[in-house]
Specification:
The protein is of the alpha+beta class. Helix content is about 30%, strand content about 40%. The protein has five helices and 13 strands. Strands 1, 2, 3, 4, 5, 6, 7, 8, 9, 10, 11, 12 and 13 form a 13-stranded antiparallel sheet that branches. Helix 1 runs antiparallel to helix 5. It starts with a helix and ends in a 16-residue tail after the last helix.
Amino acid sequence: MRRRAGLCLLALAVFCVAMAPTLRWYAFPRLAKIPPNQYQETVLEAKPATLLNYSTLQAEKVEKITIIQTLKGNVEESRRIERDAGRDVVVWDALAYITGPDGKMVSKVPERYIFDAHTQDPVHATGESVDGDPVRREGIEFKWPFLTEKRDYQYFDAQTRTSAPIHYKGTRTFRGMEVYYFEQTIPWTRVPMPKTMPVKIPPEVIAESGLSRWYTTKRMFWIEPVTGAPVNGEEIHKEELRNAKALMGRDTITVFEGHVKMREDYVRSVGEMVSSNRLMVLMLVSYLPWSLAFLALLLLALALWLEARSRRPAPEPGAAPVTPPV
């Protein structure tokens, strides 16, 4: 019985040893994925801010500017692209909708972002765009990879339609959570005019006058490294119209300037969501593999102990007692 039990324990130990790396290197890449139907909304505010009043053509100080950022998974497009890509793909239809202090629209910029569901690497396919213009992304946008590393990444800037390094600046604690802090500065760069604005300026008028839009920003992200999700984000943002004298009477006019931050209620809700997802990822990459490895060692030790006991020699029978003569 002992030898049979030892063999069973040894078989269970071998199974646990095999399952530990399988969960980490096989199951994790196939199970840890962004769902194709995800919907997420984030509200950011700049309080106070400077905003161009298109009726007076003057830059004015306002109480706040609100940016509503939505990410909506497009399941049909994901399935269409997956047939050619041969891997799980997520398509996000994103929209940055900006409103002034009166709630009226200032501008809106739609995007289509196509990426690998596990690695977050961009997938180049028809439809990849910013504000209706085709683009070819390099690097990440909106989300970092699972198990984010302490290094610089290429980050796509939707305004300039280009990618630039976003730099790892150290490990910090954000509301009790260990996060990686990243920072990117985009210098003054000429960027396209938004296609949706409060005042429609015909393209031929812009071309004749030489009017141009310029932009700079300092972008900051606090990333939870296990899930790769931003738990907080800020931008120190400024936009100008230059060569505007022919149309607006002055050469340079500030269109928007402000320190954009996530609204407090959204910081809390994002933190709760990231905490729950973090546990699931850790189960696949750490908790379960290490638990299985420890259990395998325990089972192996028990099997060896039973085997050793089964091989121990039985005690010799004692001599028969001598019967005294009558």
